[in-house]
């Protein structure tokens, strides 16, 4: 069986979508940040407790990123996890900006208007 992994800024494959306790579906890291921001602490604890961290497992399965998985697994605080994920997203978006060049980004922004 071939393992398919996506870039950090992309959606995971549909079979790897994460369904949260409240029924919300997480398709990518941005969705996860939004879900965590809205999530009650007791709901967060349903996913992160003891040696269990559903979010770290989801990152490993969907993105095959062992480094990020280890970082997320080590975080047991919702606020710190949000901060970590925002930092990762900002870094990756910066790389995309540098790689695509200013003109490409400005073109995409103008197309959104």
How does this model look, in words?
The protein has 113 residues and is mostly helical. It has one domain (14-112). It has five helices and four strands; from the N terminus they run ββααββααα. The strands form two sheets. Strands 1-2 form a two-stranded antiparallel ribbon. Strand 1 and strand 2 (25-26) form a beta hairpin. The radius of gyration is 15 Å and the shape is globular.
Oligomer description: single chain
Q: Give the averaged pLDDT, no decimals.
A: 87
The largest sheet has its strands arranged as 1-2
| Number of E strands | 4
Biggest sheet statistics: 2 strands, antiparallel
Strand pairing plus helix content: what structural class? mainly alpha
Radius of gyration equals 15 Å
What share of residues are in beta strands?
5-15%
Query: Can you tell me the number of structural domains?
Result: 1
What's the helix and strand layout?
Elements: E1 18-19, E2 25-26, H1 29-38, H2 41-47, E3 48-49, E4 52-53, H3 54-63, H4 66-74, H5 78-112
Antiparallel strand pairs: 1-2, 3-4
Helix pairs in contact: 1-5, 3-4
Structure at a glance:
The protein has helices at 29-38, 41-47, 54-63, 66-74, 78-112, and strands at residues 18-19, 25-26, 48-49, 52-53. Helix content is 63%, strand content 7%.
Describe this protein with a few key phrases.
113 residues; two-stranded antiparallel sheet; globular; two-stranded antiparallel ribbon; mainly alpha
């Amino acid at each position: 069986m071939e393992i398919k992994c996506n870039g950090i800024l992309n959606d995971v494959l549909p079979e790897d979508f994460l369904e949260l306790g409240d029924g919300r579906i997480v398709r990518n890291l941005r969705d996860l940040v939004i879900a965590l921001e809205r999530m009650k602490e007791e709901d967060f604890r349903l996913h992160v407790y003891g040696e269990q961290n559903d979010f770290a497992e989801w990152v490993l399965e969907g993105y095959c990123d062992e480094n990020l998985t280890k970082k997320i697994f080590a975080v047991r605080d919702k606020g710190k996890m949000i901060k970590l994920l925002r930092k990762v997203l900002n870094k990756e978006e910066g790389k995309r900006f540098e790689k695509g060049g200013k003109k490409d980004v400005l073109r995409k922004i103008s197309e959104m208007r």
